[in-house]
Amino acid sequence: MRKSALSALCRFSRRRESLLEDLVRKRRQQQQQQQQCRGFRCSARWHVVKPFVLADIGEGIKEVQIIQWFVQPGARVEQFDKLCEVASDKAITEITSRFDGVIKKLHYEPEAMAQVGK
To answer: To the nearest 10°, the Cα dihedral for 38, 44, 46, 49?
Structure first.
């Protein structure tokens, strides 16, 4: 009985070592994945100022009048947040954000005419 208890203890010890090695290996893999992702998340692209060009809002429309702004400089916006309301000779439309970010500057005053694509 003593030999069987000793061999069972040895098997248990080996199995425990094997499990610990597996845990250590998995933890190292997780750390390596985190380090690989960490460089991507900290890229400098987040700090780039992206110019917002007034998109073509309709066939043949070359300029629109800014009716009102829904944002102010320094405001944080997300995609699809309303930025402004514009009027063309055909319709009144709300312009939404294509980016997440912070408004740095408004280039047109309300009631001013803005060129499409600029």
So the answer is: 180
